[in-house]
Amino acid sequence: MFETYTIKDIAKALGLSTSTVSRALNGSHEIGAETKRLVLEYAEKINYRPNPIALSLKEQRSHSIGVVVCEVANNYFSQAINGIESIAYDRGYHVIITQTHESFDREKANVEHLISRHVDGLLVSLSAETTDLAQYKYLHNKGFPIVFFDRVAPDITTHKVTVDNYKGSFDATEMLINKGFKRIAHLTNSYNLLISQDRLKGYQAALEKHGLPFREDYMKHCNHGGMNHDEVEVIIKELLDLPERPDALFVTADRLTINCLQILKKLGMRVPEDIAIAGFTNSDSAELFDPPLTTVRQPAFQIGQIATERLINLIESKYPVTEFITEQLDTELLVRSSSDKLSAK
Fold first, then answer.
1. DSSP annotation string for 254-309
2. What is the secondary structure of 177-230 as a DSSP string?
3. Residues 6 or more apart from 59 whose CB is under 8 A from it?
4. Structure confidence by residue, pLDDT tens digits, 82-130
5. Do residues 292 and 269 make contact, with C-beta atoms less than 8 angstroms apart?
6. What is the pLDDT of residues 124-160, one digit of tens each?
7. Which of 273, 304, 313, 320 shows the greatest Cβ crowding within 10 Å of its Cβ?
8. Which CATH code for domain 165-297+333-343?
9. With 0-12 CB in 10 A as exposed, 13-18 as middle and 19+ as buried, what is 13?
10. Coil, helix or strand for 69?
11. Do domains 60-162+300-330 and 165-297+333-343 have the same CATH topology?
């Protein structure tokens, strides 16, 4: 086992005070050049390394980042977390991941726990239930570094990283219209989320552009984002039981999209012969589904990287940061046979 030396050991060996040794190691201008040289040479000789835990306690820095997401198993968030970790570890930070499972109470408890662990900053994607932003406002007003990604808080002025949800939704809806579908139902996440609101607006804008009516009975909010399978099945059955059944579904949440495809098959609906489907998902298996699934794909890995860079810059800034950036990345529409009108009856 390697012997561990402390500042006290260096001070005793050189006949100096521990405060003088500490300031010399930190390059303080209060310490003369000769003393600095003696201290640094001796520290190098004994292979002295600062104790990271002691440093953390002294600086109130843990060199860790707290991450709040709805679910790690979600394709989008698993890729975003990979992006987060790729930057964090290179910059000397550990990552602590928490899941809300779309619960506000769990999100609140997770944030409190992360703060008690002395994380240096938070990367947050809000739960579907979250409308009360008081804890984030309190932390932000105290100068605690927070960056929102994907599901952002509109009323807190800090760095945010997301995609152009309006355009991604508009493009997918317009694609379905251009393929000949006229009765397009829209399934989305909780209305509390800004991404749901923006995606709804994109869907409505595409309908309006092509002279199609917006129908309230075709608009469905799944408040658990597909995590509650029964909720999704009830909603799909409601749509299929309408006198004028939709001829296509446009779905705007990752897990929700996959669940819709599974439930349609369970109910004996042929895709796309009986009903077409397109949706937001980052599943790497989407093209292997039967049929291959038309998707709006988000650059989740890159979003995680950018958000982490922004957060670490906030953490390490020597001065209060007053200018913040909201970054919108582009989505990618991948058209596959689940939205193919040619085989529909």
1. HHHHHHHHHHHHHTT--TTTT-EEEEE---TTGGGSSSPPEEEE--HHHHHHHHHH
2. HHTT---EEEEES-TTSHHHHHHHHHHHHHHHHTTPPP-GGGEEE-TTTTSSHH
3. none
4. 999 999 999 999 999 999 999 999 999 999 999 988 899 999 999 999 9
5. no
6. 999 999 999 999 999 999 899 999 999 999 999 999 9
7. 304
8. 3.40.50.2300
9. middle
10. strand
11. yes
Q: How far apart are CA 79 and CA 3, in angstroms?
A: 41
**pLDDT tens per residue, range 231-289:** 899 999 999 999 999 999 999 988 899 899 999 999 999 999 999 999 999 998 888 88
Domain 7-50 has CATH 1.10.260.40: yes
Helix (H) or strand (E) segment spanning residue 23 = helix 18-25
Domain map of the chain by residue range? 7-50, 60-162+300-330, 165-297+333-343
For 195, the token pair is 């991404």
d(CA 195, CA 161): 12
- Tokens encoding 82: 């990979």
Residues 39 and 115: their CA atoms lie apart, in Å, by 37
The first and second tokens of residue 133, run together, are 């932003």
334 CB-near residues (< 8 Å, 6+ apart): 286, 287, 294, 295, 296, 297
Spatial separation of the C-alpha atoms in residues 290 and 338, rounded to whole Å: 8
Give me the residue label for tokens 């009903």.
Answer: 275
Residues 26-69: tens digit of each pLDDT: 777 788 888 988 999 998 888 887 765 455 445 567 899 999 99
Q: Rounded distance, CA 107 to CA 129, Å?
A: 9
Q: How far apart are CA 331 and CA 195, in angstroms?
A: 13
Burial of 84 (0-12, 13-18, 19+ CB in 10 A): buried
Choices 3.40.50.2300, 3.40.50.360, 3.60.15.10, 3.50.30.50: CATH for 60-162+300-330: 3.40.50.2300
Dihedral sign, Cα of residue 200, residue 202, residue 208, residue 213:
negative
